[in-house]
Design brief:
Blueprint (H helix, E strand, L loop, with lengths): L2 H24 L59 H6 L5 H12 L5 H21 L2 H7 L2 H17 L2 E20 L2 E17 L5 E21 L8 E7 L2
Antiparallel strand pairs: 1-2, 2-3, 3-4
Helix pairs in contact: 4-5
Length: 246
């Protein structure tokens, strides 16, 4: 066998070994290739928000005015410098009530990140609006407190009984700001002020528009409060209060 043949055979053997090794690695499934989407518990910092659905259904949500959104300011005391709060202090100025509330939440749950929470709240806002319009009770059940779910469910049932349908589009969230945060016992609460743009029209059984406008983009201003028990193994935040700013 000539020298060239020996070299060729050597490289063929090496290539075969590399192929078999790659197959053994790439062919394995870890069980985490496509984890289910969760707006609040995904921790990867470079994730992008989900693209709004082109065929989304949106309708004005039932409002509840209960919750801590109107709580009075408190004396936050002297401002301390602590590297543990670097992300908190970069989000809300030290010495403010918002900063103090976020620090308390972080003390109870060290995985909490305010910027990621805002991204999650924006995604949850769209998911809830779309699920309410579609009558998707399963999705709502996972994102709402029991009290808020009862109100949404009653509104969906009333709409179904009347034979009404919604044809709307979620244009997007124009602004989402955290207005307050607090920790009472183990219960963390965060209130968001969300400004969104929607195109929505509700049709009756005869096909006539009874609410909204199918050709006009409307600006909607809401205050939504989310809550989570920091002692619970359940990482999900749930909507506990909604209030419209008109």
């Amino acid at each position: 066998m000539g020298t060239d043949s020996i070299i060729t055979l050597f490289f063929l053997i090496v290539a075969a070994l590399i192929f078999l090794n790659l197959r053994s690695v790439l062919g394995k499934r870890t069980g985490s290739e496509k984890p289910p989407y969760d707006p609040f518990t995904r921790r990867d910092a470079d994730r992008s928000a989900p693209t709004p659905s082109d065929d989304g259904k949106v309708i004005t949500l039932p409002r509840r005015t209960s919750g801590p959104a109107g709580s009075q300011p408190v004396d936050v005391g002297p401002v301390s410098v602590d590297n543990r709060y670097e992300e908190i202090d970069g989000f809300a100025a030290p010495g403010t009530q918002l900063n103090a509330g976020l620090r308390r939440i972080f003390d109870a749950d060290s995985s909490f990140n305010p910027k990621q929470f805002v991204d999650g709240a924006k995604a949850a806002y769209e998911m809830i609006v779309m699920a309410f319009a579609d009558g998707d009770r399963k999705t709502l059940k996972n994102l709402l407190s029991n009290e808020v779910y009862e109100g949404f469910n009653a509104a969906i049932s009333e709409r179904e009984k009347a034979g009404e349908k919604v044809k709307s589009s979620f244009v997007g969230v124009g602004k989402a700001d955290m207005s307050s945060a607090d920790l009472v016992g183990s219960q963390a609460t965060i209130t968001m002020r969300i400004v969104s743009q929607l195109i929505s029209a509700t049709y009756n059984a005869a096909g006539d528009v009874v609410d909204g406008n199918a050709e006009t983009v409307a600006e909607v201003k809401d205050q939504w409060t989310f809550a989570r028990d920091t002692r619970s193994r359940d990482p999900n935040w749930r909507l506990v209060s909604t209030q419209s700013e008109g």
